[in-house]
Design goal:
About 30% of the residues lie in helices and about 30% in strands. By secondary structure, the chain is of the alpha/beta class.
């Protein structure tokens, strides 16, 4: 079935006048929907990425993302547009398990979980990763622990910013080496700006030169650069104090890394009679009482008193979207079936 979907995409791509591609959004920040994207938009995106990363028709690409969604489809589109040879694998947790240097992979894109699993299960594959021109990580935040592990990779590793509506990424930021930076740099041909909410706007060939207004709060650093702060719809107003979920999660990720905790977690807000909404922390899996005590101690030392979660809920297993991202809405709903830890 996976192979059939790839062949259908290939056959449609090489039609003389292909109809728009029907692409489903991941549903990580809302209800999944299907949108139409033209071959011309995909070619524009692929060419921008090729130009930014120096990819040529002599390079080999490893396609290991789910090709039902835009990130996987665009790996195929980049191979077709640039003329790269594509080695295609199902979207498994450790795509490099059986990859050897003899394949000379130049370029790939993965979700952070795939990179984490590869480094943990197959540390001997560092040499394969090091021969690459670029490795893209997207679809989920890159935690502090993984970012530290990436420093062992010599090849450039980039975090991507983008969405289905922008035909995958429109900006990259370096995650490893001395060039690591919190700043995203847009691809050639992309124009960005801010709306009245300080949210990012995007325009370029990938958007048919129409302006897309996002819900992502950013700080612009001209020309063509920005720092991503978080989503405007991920702000918790607790007693009049506005707390950006992504910033708090980044701080907690650093604490987890320091304490050696590997559980997945997320921050959300729940109704509170006193504060209107209170900050709570959801932790997946087993989490002992002494771990919770050490966590609270570090939280009090690290974040403001308004950001310290009022409750911690232990969730046996988080809900996920079809692309493996945490489904925040569904996972928040699991709170009401649990007792606070």
């Amino acid at each position: 079935m996976y192979k059939d979907a790839i062949l259908r995409f290939r056959d449609q791509w090489f039609l003389s006048t292909p109809p728009p591609f029907q692409i489903q959004t991941s549903g990580s920040t809302g209800k999944p929907k299907t949108i139409e994207i033209s071959k011309e938009q995909m070619e524009a995106s692929a060419s921008m990425t090729g130009q930014a990363l120096g990819l040529t028709n002599s390079d080999n690409a490893l396609v290991c993302l789910n090709t039902q969604y835009i990130a996987g489809k665009m790996m195929l589109a980049r191979a077709f547009t640039i003329g790269m040879t594509a080695y295609i694998l199902p979207p498994v947790a450790n795509p490099f398990k059986n990859i050897t240097k003899s394949l000379s992979i130049s370029f790939t894109a993965m979700v952070p979980y795939q990179m984490k699993t590869t480094l943990e299960e197959s540390p001997d594959k560092i040499g394969v990763l090091n021969q690459m021109k670029a490795i893209l990580l997207g679809g989920a935040p890159v935690g502090h622990q993984l970012e530290e592990s990436l420093q062992n990779i010599e090849a450039p590793v980039y975090s991507t910013y983008g969405m289905t509506e922008t035909v995958s990424h429109i900006a990259l930021r370096r995650l490893n080496s001395r060039n690591a930076s919190p700043v995203y740099t847009v691809l050639p041909g992309i124009s960005i700006g801010l709306d009245e909410r300080s949210c990012l706007t995007i325009k370029g060939p990938v958007t048919r030169d129409e302006t897309i207004i996002t819900n992502d709060i950013v700080k612009l650093i001209p020309p063509g650069q920005f720092i991503w702060t978080g989503r405007i719809d991920n702000i918790i107003n607790s007693g009049g104090v506005k707390i950006q979920i992504e910033e708090l999660e980044s701080s907690i990720s650093g604490i987890f890394n320091t304490l050696g905790y590997t559980n997945r977690f997320m921050v959300t807000g729940i109704p509170d009679n006193c504060f209107g909404t209170s900050v709570v922390l959801l932790i997946e899996g087993i989490f002992a009482e002494d771990q919770k005590s050490r966590l609270y101690h570090e939280l009090i030392q690290t974040v403001s008193k308004y950001e310290v979660p009022k409750k911690i809920f232990l969730i046996p297993e988080f809900s996920e979207t079809a692309t493996g991202k945490i489904d925040r809405i569904a996972t928040t709903g699991l709170i009401f079936t649990q007792t606070p830890a």
